[in-house]
Amino acid sequence: MAAVDWQKEIQPLLKKYKGKKHPLEYNNMYELLVMVVLSAQDSDAHINKIAPDFFKAFPDMKALSKADDTSLYPLIGKVRNFGNKTKWLLGIAAQIKEDKNIPQTLEELTALPGIGRKSANVIMRESGLKAEGIIVDLHVVRVAPRLGIATGTDPKKIEKQMMDVLDPKVWGEVGMAISFLGRETCRPTNPKHADCVMKTVCAYYKESK
Q: Which residues form the HhH-GPD domain (predicted)?
């Protein structure tokens, strides 16, 4: 069986979701960073609901740097893992102090508390920064092996495998595009094969026929 030219075959998917904004409803890089930290192991929809009150109380990094546990708990107490997330946000704000100091590279972003590669890649993609990696969220962990572009369940290994077969020019968009495919079409159960732009090369689709 001939190897798939993923750079070519991924194009319909990239075209479908090109530039589509992440589901988190943020207005600037500060809000995005806070919401990305809060959304880990929680849903984007839940974070979108609590965000307006949070940002009313702490409109920027300067305000957040003056916060403490007791002022954050009432606002994020319903978020999963809120204890750690409170620590992380306070740690980030203490380090960064002002919006203008928010890092713009993968290395600097991942050095912040509570920010892994996935979060950093999301922040960079949404801020229009040059991609240094590929977003691998829980949807990508499910969908990439189904497609056959990667194997396993380890996000870092999946990211590395995709980076090896795709041009760096598409890194910024491809993870989000696969994530949207997972959210809308390639659902955990009963994927909508008929609606899928990737079915001509998808290993999972070929097996299911």
A: 38-184
